[in-house]
Amino acid sequence: MIKYILLVVLLTSSLEGLKLHKKRTNFENVPKFKTLYTDQYLDHFNKRDDRTYKQRFLVNDEWFNPNDGPVFFYAGNEGDIESFWNNTGFMFDIAPVFQALVVFPEHRYYGESLPFGDSSFDQDKIGFLSVEQTMADYAVLLTKLQQDYNLCRKKNPIIAFGGSYGGILAAYMRYKYPNIVRGALAASAPIYLTAGLAPSTLFFQDVTNDFDKEPGCVPLVRQAFDAMENAAKQGDYKLLSEKFKLCEPISDAAGYKHLLLWMRNAFTIMAMVDYPYPASFLGDLPAWPVRFACQQLVNDTAKGVDILSSFKNLASILYNDTSKCFDIYEQFIECADPTSCGLGNDAKSWDYQACTELNTVQETNGVSDMFPVISYNEELREQYCLKTWGVKVRKEWPSIQFWGKHIKTATNIVFSNGLLDPWHNGGPLTNVSDSLVAVIIEDGAHHLDLRGSDPNDPQSVKIARYLEIEQIIKWIEEARKEPCEKF
Amino acid sequence: MIKYILLVVLLTSSLEGLKLHKKRTNFENVPKFKTLYTDQYLDHFNKRDDRTYKQRFLVNDEWFNPNDGPVFFYAGNEGDIESFWNNTGFMFDIAPVFQALVVFPEHRYYGESLPFGDSSFDQDKIGFLSVEQTMADYAVLLTKLQQDYNLCRKKNPIIAFGGSYGGILAAYMRYKYPNIVRGALAASAPIYLTAGLAPSTLFFQDVTNDFDKEPGCVPLVRQAFDAMENAAKQGDYKLLSEKFKLCEPISDAAGYKHLLLWMRNAFTIMAMVDYPYPASFLGDLPAWPVRFACQQLVNDTAKGVDILSSFKNLASILYNDTSKCFDIYEQFIECADPTSCGLGNDAKSWDYQACTELNTVQETNGVSDMFPVISYNEELREQYCLKTWGVKVRKEWPSIQFWGKHIKTATNIVFSNGLLDPWHNGGPLTNVSDSLVAVIIEDGAHHLDLRGSDPNDPQSVKIARYLEIEQIIKWIEEARKEPCEKF
């Protein structure tokens, strides 16, 4: 208890944040982990299916005190678990103080945790990828760990952490397995949006708002998209291909649409990871990439660079042109979730999830946002998902299974959201109850609070982390009142 | 609101119970129902599987007031849903006062709701029978009904009812789908026991305690089992076959064991349905069958009837000897759950569930109970389940998935238990929190409170029903505070 008080005093007195590890951005001081594997049932809900797969999980127990250390559990989301280990420094900043055991299980069908290796993404094998199966994996693993480490509920409460879809999973774990997870920090978790309860134009409107904070930026972006539109209308795909230095020139409307999607994606990513320092989370980006991009665009055009070339220069902040040209078909892949498309296995799995349990229908209209009209609605999603994955979208399922807006009965969850994050309007922004607490980070982008402390952190994220620590301490103290039972 | 106050006044002033329907036992006044069917996904958790099946559900809307009537939802359990409609009169006693819509969905793989018809029980088809799939069926159906009837959360809160395994499901629905179910009456729901958290000798010890309330009964039962044991030791299966009037004589230790199980089962059933009036729920039995059986046993032996014949006479209270003999192989089938074995499809499904998610390992030792030693433990269960269903028992799953003893985060559940019910020690007998309320019925057997009001009801069940109504009103009033939103 005393150590927690010290921690809070430290935080409140200076609000300088925790400085146990600096320079998180280069992963230089990221703590080591042990890589372990556990056998999980492929199908937790069909007991006739005895097949198992190897789930990877990362563990650090160097600070763990079995007598009263909690378990810090990161709810692995849509990617290689090591990348989340390298981008969730907040947990390592506070784990030594809490003397916590740190566990990062990998989400099934991502990273190394592929039930059927590279053929996991075949239509007849992908069906075991679901939010429910994943949560069951986590519940079973955590129960196993409490046996292996001889943990008890009183001394070693489990706190879930997660960002984005991982934050959604952390919250859901508290909804569905409060017997196992004592509390959850759900950072940037757009739970309402993914349950299909947000307008489809919300996301890109908020991307636009981010860029609109920079003087003169949005009008130039609109001007650039207009210039593209004019060229396309005249069939001048050659001009566009040259101006944007495309490795593979476009020659028709479909190619033009792909160029627009690639361009729009640059704004999406910069808005999402608008961090106050250089970071390489969704691409190598400079500090405050939105400001950086806008200033460059304004400066370029002021210098007389034509608008299309200036626009290409903006894209090159995110995209590599190592071959002296841009491969827009490699750098952006059309998929079910227009905000997150990529190459490789992880992108395939995410695409399947965006067709099943995560509603991510976002579109632009050029009115409430600065982008060209690119329609995407439930009907188009349904067509795409049937064609690509052979699945009929079960539209109502997510809000039935994961409670939609009716989450009042849950307890011990922090929903944190940064106002720079275009996802923030998709989640709870005010307290739902005394123990469903909303934390707002005025100058924060996508789950900035989960990242390690940095000298450039704005005050608002330091305060957010303080509030989160306060809640975590509350959850741990709550556990102390219970007998020392197994989970 | 006023009508509820009237209801409570009525109940508290007289405590005579609700007399809207009498003579429930003969089903004479059981309200009518509409039989409806809905398409349900066979696999709610694998979106690649688009197969559906027809789930039956029964509806009565004759009293329903859409403006403020709740939905009374019975969580169908292991049998034909019509049999539960005919044995859950409490809901019909109060539904007119609450102006409730009454819905009884049938549990998948029971009654008519067989996904693959008669071949549903093949090893390659049974795997879609699970508690999780069943709960998803209910959640999806209830969401569909709110659309069909244009219900909203404020005006039409859904209250779940269930007895025994149905009570477990009602409670679980509130654990996992509190967005849909506002409160649950879980009658005689041994949630701890089925999660594997009770000693294997508990159940039959409580059966013994029931019979021990009748003077002179247990010593005679022990004497009778001893006499059987003596005959068996001498290999005198002929004597046993004659005394028990077996249609098919037994001739070896296996046959003898089956006779013992058949005999023990008579006690099990009589203890479970030790109701204050004749009932035909798990067999046609007289009022207070435990007392009836004991008095007959005592009288028979007092009259000089030999102990084995007296014992056979006791069994005949439950079992039919229409062919002038007892077919013990038809009247009792050995299975995974030694407390509930029978013939037919429903029994097959229950057997599978007892091998998967419902731990029902009960055994007798002749010390803490009055029965011969019949061992049954996890190891024997595992062997049986592997042999019969080809499933490896996942022993820890039920307490991981359904919270075991750690249910404190749930709200709005009444756990009612009758002290005559041998299952009562398997569930919560004291309040877990302000809104997880234990109701004890001193003179009640297995979910007597869910049955319709009867002139012979003991005072304790009338009080229990009053307490339950009080909670239901509380849940409905809670819903009134919310906006009129969809589920």
TrEMBL record, chains A, B:
Which Pfam families does the protein's record reference? Peptidase_S28
Q: Does the keyword Protease apply?
A: yes
What is an example of a GO molecular function annotated in this UniProt entry? dipeptidyl-peptidase activity
Signal peptide positions (record): 1-17
Q: Which InterPro entries does the annotation name?
A: AB_hydrolase_fold, Peptidase_S28, Ser_carbopepase_S28_SKS
A GO BP entry? proteolysis
Which UniProt keywords are given for this protein, alphabetically ordered? Answer: Glycoprotein, Hydrolase, Protease, Signal
Question: Which family is annotated?
Answer: Belongs to the peptidase S28 family.
Please identify the protein, giving its name as recorded.
Dipeptidyl peptidase 2-like
